[in-house]
Amino acid sequence: MSAQYIYFIIFFCVAYLILTDASVSKAFYLLTELVKVQYQKIKWWVWMNPRMPWAKFMMWRRSMKLAKELMKEFEEKQ
Question: How many domains does the chain have?
Answer without folding.
Answer: 1
